[in-house]
Amino acid sequence: MEAHSSEVFVIGLTVFFLACIIGYYVVWSVTPALHSPLMGVTNAISSVIIVGAILAAGPQGFDTSKIFGLIGVVLASVNIFGGFLVTYRMLSMFKKKTKKTKEKE
Amino acid sequence: MSSNIVAILYLISALLFIFALRGLSHPESSRMGNIFGIIGMIIAVFTTLMFKSVLSYYEIGAAILIGGAIGSFIALRIEMTALPQLVAAFHSLVGLAAVFVAAAAFYDPVAFSIGKVGSIKTASLVEMSIGTFIGAITFSGSVLAFGKLQGTISGKPIVFKFQHFINASIFLLIILLIVLFVVNQSPTIFWTIVIVSIILGFLVVIPIGGADMPVVVSMLNSYSGWAACGIGFTLSNNLLIITGALVGASGAILSYIMSKGMNRSIINVVLGGFGGEQDTSASKDNSDKIVKQGNAEDAAYIMKNADSVIIVPGYGMAVAQAQHALREMGDILKKEGIEVRYAIHPVAGRMPGHMNVLLAEANVPYEEVLELDEINHDFPMTEVSFVIGANDVTNPAAKTDESSPIFGMPILDVEKSQSVLFVKRSMATGYSGVDNDLFYRDNTTMLFGDAKKMCEDIVKSLSS
């Protein structure tokens, strides 16, 4: 990673606005029936913040920053595993029912 | 690894996250989407572990295992009716994680290449404190939302004098603290920002009532995204910025859809206090009106002789865990050759799409579950509307009575069907505190009792 200059900030800002626009269109295309799984997935991916926590926990030895980083890793991991798993559970319900009821009929 | 390879791997991971959301446009593609999301996350984590500065693999591995075990345990055990609480709890963790990452960056800026202790770059300080602020608000707001959804804290809105003035003052105080923090980089001020933001998070959610929770949960979803963005700017990490923006946009759109479903502006919901006081005058008006009461046999008889039934589920169905019994009832009716469909109001339940998940859990095929716009024009051609655990979303006063607090809210036109069956615990008003005129109509039959028990009894009479 390079030094924090105004150039880096402007690039970040560009990325930010473009991502907002992508997010806007992608989310509107989500079917309302799947809004709960959408929350599950967004919850899981927002824990990509784990990247920052890993960087903080990375150096050897023990200091305040490392402890904060490790706590961050634990918290984000709860979310990553929990978020993806609960979404998986929700989505597999949307699958099995079509088959089951057809079998019954 | 060179910084270019890192950037490309992060880009792949960001693209996979976009595909993960895109997959949710249809139930069939959604599971693949979830897998894209998981792959994206694995790439992001392993890429970061390859950094030269990252050396303590054992500690990090242990932390991931601990967190992963807790998360998996909770996600596998949770009841689908408790999803809203779970999501709120998860949001609080994202918020808290953001605070810890910001704190770590503040205490060890060298690890993030943003300067040295005591002389961190100004831009980084601003971004860091904004990330901390949003993260802390997300944390405490979600904790309170969790409490309200779980029932540990009363779902009633708590309003007090000068509430908005106090919140606005605290917000200004936080801005002042951020300025001070940027100037003198003191740890005391950093933690003061954290604490004051936590207090603000509580105060922001406290006036918002239980049934407005779909908006609050979506809003906190949005905040957790913006918090990730803030940290992304601090670390100049595009992956975090992109993902945060995706999540932020998603939560914002959901909040918009939810408040539109109640014909209220997001601001109105956020200011809170809605549905706290019971409108006594309205209920007095109807005290002498006659309510037609029925039992399970009557309901079974009415539905058995119909051609088409539309079921309108609401939060009451979730509370009573009635979805399985309800589906069983629907199956028997379908065997009799009756057309059975489900109508979902955008704000039914306590989070966006809550009813859809519960019906899916009970194996209701998603083709039979329709949104308000898709099904509303079919009510006049429908013989029976079976309303279970919903109230305000069917109230015709929203269309006719300008003085009603729910005036203008889009409702399901159940009153247009030939007869209405209303499963309810009692005559109590819905969350809005407004009496429902529909209860007193000639073609309405009230079925008093627990939603699950009622469905089971109807199933019994249908089968006998």
Report on this model:
The complex is a heterodimer of chains A (105) and B (464). Chain A is mainly α. Chain A is 80% helix and 0% strand. The relative contact order of chain A is 0.10. In chain B, the strands form 2 sheets. Chain B has a 7-stranded parallel sheet. In chain B, strands 1-2 form a two-stranded antiparallel sheet. In chain B, helix 1 (3-22) runs parallel beside helix 9 (238-261), helix 4 runs parallel beside helix 8 (213-234) and helix 5 runs parallel beside helix 7 (187-205).
The poorly predicted ranges of chain B are 276-284
E-strand count of chain A? 0
Segments of chain A where pLDDT lies below 50 for 5+ residues? 97-105
Content of β-strand of chain B: 5-15%
Distance between the terminal alpha carbons of chain B, to the nearest Å?
A: 72 Å
Separation of termini of chain A?
A: 60 Å
Briefly summarize what is shown.
Chain A has 105 residues and is an all-alpha fold. Chain A contains 4 helices and no strands. The radius of gyration of chain A is 20 Å and the shape is flat.
Secondary structure topology:
The complex is a heterodimer of chains A (105) and B (464).
Chain A: H1 6-28, H2 35-46, H3 50-57, H4 64-104
Chain B: H1 3-22, H2 27-49, H3 57-77, H4 83-107, E1 115-116, E2 119-120, H5 122-150, H6 163-184, H7 187-205, H8 213-234, H9 238-261, H10 266-271, H11 280-285, E3 293-294, H12 296-304, E4 308-313, H13 315-320, H14 323-335, E5 339-344, H15 354-361, E6 369-371, H16 372-375, E7 384-388, H17 397-400, E8 419-424, E9 444-448, H18 451-463
Parallel strand pairs in B: 3-9, 4-5, 4-7, 5-6, 7-8, 8-9
Antiparallel strand pairs in B: 1-2
Descriptive labels:
heterodimer; A: 105 residues; mainly alpha; 4 helices; disordered C terminus; B: 464 residues; alpha/beta; 7-stranded parallel beta sheet; two-stranded antiparallel ribbon; 18 helices; 59% helix; elongated
